[in-house]
Amino acid sequence: MDLGLEGKVALVMGASRGLGLACAQALSREGCTVAMAARGKDSLEAAAADLGGKNVSIHLADASVPLHRERLVNEAINRHGRIDVLITNSGGPRPGAFDAVDEAAWVHAHEVVVGQVAHLSRLAAPGMRQRKWGRIINIISSSYKEPISGLVLSNTYRPAVVGLAKTLSQELGPHGITVNNVAPGRFDTDRLREVAKARAKGEGGTLEEWMGRFGKDSPVGRLGQAQELGDAVAFLASEAARYINGVTLPVDGGLLRSL
Ligand SMILES: NC(=O)c1ccc[n+]([C@@H]2O[C@H](COP(=O)([O-])OP(=O)(O)OC[C@H]3O[C@@H](n4cnc5c(N)ncnc54)[C@H](OP(=O)(O)O)[C@@H]3O)[C@@H](O)[C@H]2O)c1
User: Fold this and answer.
1) How far is the CA of 190 from the centre of ligand 1 (A)?
2) 44-75: per-residue pLDDT in tens?
3) What is the DSSP string of 159-192?
4) Dihedrals φ, ψ of 52, to 5°?
5) 230 closest CA partner among 184, 174, 179
6) Is the CB of residue 184 below 6 angstroms from any atom belonging to ligand 1?
7) Whose CA is nearest to atom 20 of ligand 1?
8) Nearest CA to ligand 1 atom 24
9) 144 within 8 A of 161, measured Cβ to Cβ
10) pLDDT surpasses 90 at 41
């Protein structure tokens, strides 16, 4: 299927590894120019090289810092002329149960999860409105629907992104912009290892045992591979998905049991 993404410009947050990198790869494969953002220079350079180094730019930015977000969007627009597709993403809020999370972690989680989506959407939407075409896709978590034990910050802030995206989908829909969320279940990435480590520390067992258990939780009996999420994001970004707006799509092998 031709996804109609040839020549579009995508800004992908958290693009140096894991799910963000998979989104950048999938969009690049479909012909997008990709502005890739993350905090670490070396991994970002390696990721850009992985995309072939052509029609790619890298941007050092911390998604939790408002000044970085402004600078990043200016850089991407100066370099590529516009942003057609915005993928919000990061390493996620810090893991931990309520007692293990201090005030600074709450403030950081707000900025990196909700602040990022609100601010980057506000910065990218005016150009999309002018061109009457845009895609905003937020990588969230299955915690938006079923809280995950030991992840109080994710359980609190992911549902807030669902509310925000639904609101944006209504306000921006008339201007040719769709706003959707993708909710990963359990993917084999550094972030999941961090969660497994926290569970092992809090509840016992080893990191490997927890990774194995996470895979078996899903009806398909395994962890997801990042490319499987990237493919879903490329579809939502595509022309073919133009009538899909305001939804949260679980990409989880059936992990979420609730209706
Ligand atoms: N993997 C899963 O199973 C799973 C399940 C549910 C939800 N999720 C969510 O999906 C998102 C991506 O997860 P992942 O597994 O791909 O994580 P990951 O493998 O840890 O990769 C995170 C990416 O984001 C970047 N990043 C981290 N903090 C950042 C920040 N403050 N500002 C800008 N970039 C930042 C990282 O690079 P730098 O460190 O260099 O900045 C890296 O490129 C997270 O929000 C995670 O909570 C993942």
Assistant:
1) 8
2) 999 999 998 789 999 999 999 999 999 999 99
3) HHHHHHHHHHHHHHGGGTEEEEEEEE--BSSHHH
4) 100, -5
5) 184
6) yes
7) 191
8) 14
9) yes
10) yes
Has residue 194 got a pLDDT over 90?
A: no
Confirm whether pTM is higher than 0.85. yes
DSSP 63-125: TT-HHHHHHHHHHHHHHHS--SEEEE--S-SPPB-GGG--HHHHHHHIIIIIIHHHHHHHHHH
Atom 6 (ligand 1): residue with closest C-alpha?
A: 141
Q: Is residue 115 in contact with ligand 1, taking CB distance under 6 Å?
A: no
CA distance 212 to 138: 27
Model pLDDT for residues 67-97, shown as the tens digit of each residue:
999 999 999 999 999 999 999 999 999 989 9
Q: How far is CA 187 from the centre of its chain?
A: 13
Determine what percent of the chain is predicted with pLDDT higher than 70: 100
Q: Which long-range contacts (CB under 8 A, 24 or more apart) does 199-207 make?
A: 199/150, 202/97, 202/100, 202/150, 203/150
Position 202 scores a pLDDT of 85
Beta-carbon contacts of 35 under 8 Å, excluding residues fewer than 6 positions away, are 9, 10, 11, 12, 56, 57, 58, 59, 75, 76, 79, 80, 83
CA of 20 from ligand 1 middle (Å) equals 7
CA angle 151, 154, 160 (to 5 degrees): 150
